[in-house]
Write a sequence for this structure.
């Protein structure tokens, strides 16, 4: 009998423990009333500062006719207050594949429409290459360059940066591959997978090439350049059949050694021109620390052996590989912090929805919103860039569609464009991401929360669910403004008034809420 | 005492086998279920190193395939009524090996790197994921249960050994029936 009592007491304790544990797991101190879909905002808990939103001008910008209506419309849509106000312009320094028409059908599949789709112009005049001189000497000669070859892209960049109401704050020059005359394969991709295509003897020649571009943009076009990104997704194979575009594989030690050379060139350029152009490192193709081919930590480690690493405070990564994985991001940040503390900030410099067939609707836009949310919240990204701003193919790599080469082709925004606008139009450089989320959220409901310098709170609220959801708002805010992107609305103002207890987030929508005290 | 129990009860042996199989399947499932169901599509997050070793960056990995296919086969083996009970010893051994492999997976993962890079990963905090540790424990538990069944089974097999002679087969069949009725 006594044993039975002891047994019963033990069971009761066990049950209490289990119930208590579950209750503790379910409780949220920032949602003391335990409300469903409660928008938590903690302005005191600050995280990273926002440094901008952008897109790449690779491939398409070289088809924008100078002085055309298309140029005006595209510039306004992308880089002005009239459009979504992107602030980061990514100009592509081509490897010259246009010279030999490399990527008209090379592994790219059916979605390539134009032969020039993925070929790039180069300002270097290949015909001038003198075999009697070294590569460095050839690429150092100013007379070997003709920047009018890439006039469309260069002039379009200038238009975006100088137009009335321009929102361009940062210009980054990036290259996917060294010029083909500098590579082992003689092409802007390897002969085989994972071929290191830039030989060490051409490191300085490639530096000369990049500096010539930088010099032209700074002194020729009169634009302020923030950074040059010489290497792109170095861990990828970029060779053989797996090379539908320009690209160059580097082993970690090769990448680090090249940057050491380039850092010297940039220092010299800055000293001579009174500029402060930085190296953008290293456009990692992913942040998958546990994938065998991820290797992001290995590249960082290789760089850390050089003195220039002391001056690197930001790295750029791409969200390919694990675009919607929280764990992949958190594992990367965990390792980054363990090795380098808070020294290294992260910017997300490229992603696109890599699916064939154009999805201009909310399906892809909601996916984009999820990626943005996780990049800001779980990766701690300060900046966020889409891949190509403009596409005309049957592929999800643009945020607007426009018929390439056309003088006055219509610029048609996809829903991705508007959802990017849900962030970029309302957030300025220096705004802080703060602690904020939807507590006890319904499926598909999440929020990314920021604080502006004047104390206003910007919430990008996503409801990927099939039905409208009432979001319980926190107390203490007097006014609320809302702009919605959904199937029938394009970043449209839907509310401007008193801040009530709830806000109804439409089904399949992304809404920017601005809450003021 | 356990031996005596198992010698007398086929039902208990069967339960033991099922328990061992379940443990092995949970161990196996922990590696695959969440990985396959990961919304991010990369399949690796919860499993970190364990998963990386298993599929090596989404490419087929024979080492990992066999390391986790074998426990699955073992799981099936411990339920089946083999008369040759040595099968259960083999299953126990393989499950034990699988459990040990899981616990050493971090070191296996790091062997592919140069020593300084491996050290960097250690400093970076590379670790076995919690589900992997649980999977390892389950695999070892399954090994233990298989071993128990094997030990009990040997004695059981000796007891059922047929007599020499023409009617040995009939006696053996009768004995089997008796066992099934227990």
């Amino acid at each position: 009998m006594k044993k039975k009592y002891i047994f019963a007491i033990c069971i009761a304790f066990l049950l209490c423990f289990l119930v208590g544990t579950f209750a503790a797991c379910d409780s949220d101190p920032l949602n003391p009333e335990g409300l469903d879909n409660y928008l938590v905002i903690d302005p005191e808990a600050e995280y990273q500062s926002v440094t901008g939103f952008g897109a790449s001008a690779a491939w398409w910008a070289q088809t924008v006719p100078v002085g055309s209506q298309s140029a005006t419309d595209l510039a306004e849509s992308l880089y002005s207050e009239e459009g979504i106000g992107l602030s980061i312009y990514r100009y592509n320094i081509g490897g010259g594949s246009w010279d030999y028409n490399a990527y008209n059908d090379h592994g790219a599949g059916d979605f390539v429409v134009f032969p020039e789709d993925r070929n790039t112009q180069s300002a270097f005049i290949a015909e001038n290459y003198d075999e009697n001189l070294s590569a460095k000497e050839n690429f150092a000669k100013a007379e070997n360059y003709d920047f009018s070859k890439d006039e469309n892209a260069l002039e379009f960049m200038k238009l975006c940066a100088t137009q009335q109401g321009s929102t361009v704050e940062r210009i980054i020059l990036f290259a996917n591959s060294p010029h083909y005359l500098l590579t082992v394969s003689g092409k802007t991709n390897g002969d085989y997978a994972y071929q290191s295509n830039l030989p060490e003897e051409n490191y300085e020649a490639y530096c000369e090439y990049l500096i010539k571009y930088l010099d032209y943009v700074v002194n020729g076009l009169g634009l302020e350049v923030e950074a040059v990104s010489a290497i792109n997704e170095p861990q990828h194979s970029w060779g053989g059949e797996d090379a539908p575009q320009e690209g160059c594989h580097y082993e970690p030690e090769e990448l680090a050694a090249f940057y050491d050379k380039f850092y010297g060139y940039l220092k010299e350029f800055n000293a001579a021109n009174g500029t402060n152009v930085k190296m953008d490192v290293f456009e990692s193709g992913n942040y998958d620390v546990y994938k065998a081919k991820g290797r992001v930590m290995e590249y960082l480690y290789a760089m850390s052996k050089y003195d220039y690493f002391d001056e690197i405070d930001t790295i750029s990564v791409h969200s390919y590989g694990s675009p919607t994985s929280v764990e992949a991001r958190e594992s990367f940040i965990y390792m980054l912090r363990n090795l380098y503390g808070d020294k290294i900030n992260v910017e997300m410099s490229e992603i696109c929805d890599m699916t064939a067939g154009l999805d201009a609707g909310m399906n892809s836009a909601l996916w984009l919103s999820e990626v943005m949310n996780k990049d800001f919240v779980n990766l701690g990204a300060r900046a966020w860039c889409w891949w190509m701003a403009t596409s005309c193919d049957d592929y999800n790599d643009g945020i607007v569609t426009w018929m390439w080469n056309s003088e006055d082709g219509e610029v048609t925004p996809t829903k991705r464009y508007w959802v990017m606008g849900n962030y970029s139009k309302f957030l300025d450089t220096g705004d802080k991401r703060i602690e904020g989320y939807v507590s006890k959220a319904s499926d598909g409901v999440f929020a990314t929360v920021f604080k502006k310098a004047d104390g206003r709170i910007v919430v990008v609220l996503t409801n990927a669910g099939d039905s409208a959801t009432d979001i319980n708002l926190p107390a203490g805010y007097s006014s609320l403004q809302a702009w919605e992107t959904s199937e029938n609305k394009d970043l449209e103002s839907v509310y401007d008034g008193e801040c009530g207890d709830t806000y109804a987030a439409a089904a399949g929508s992304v809404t920017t809420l601005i809450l003021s005290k | 005492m356990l031996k005596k129990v198992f010698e007398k009860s086929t039902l208990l042996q069967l339960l033991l086998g099922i328990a061992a199989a379940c443990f092995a399947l949970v161990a196996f499932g922990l590696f695959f279920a969440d990985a396959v169901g990961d919304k991010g599509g990369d399949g690796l997050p919860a499993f970190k190193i364990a998963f990386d070793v298993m599929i090596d960056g989404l490419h087929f990995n024979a080492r990992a395939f066999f390391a986790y296919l074998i426990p699955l086969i073992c799981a099936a083996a411990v339920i089946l009524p083999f008369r040759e009970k040595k099968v259960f010893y083999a299953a126990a051994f393989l499950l034990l090996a699988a459990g040990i492999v899981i616990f050493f997976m971090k070191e296996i993962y790091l062997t592919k790197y140069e020593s300084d890079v491996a050290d960097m990963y250690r400093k970076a905090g590379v670790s076995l994921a919690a589900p992997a540790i649980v999977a390892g424990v389950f695999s070892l538990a399954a090994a233990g249960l298989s071993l128990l069944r094997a030990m009990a089974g040997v004695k059981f097999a000796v007891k059922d050994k047929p007599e020499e002679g023409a009617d040995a087969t009939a006696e053996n069949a009768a004995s089997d029936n008796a066992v099934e009725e227990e």
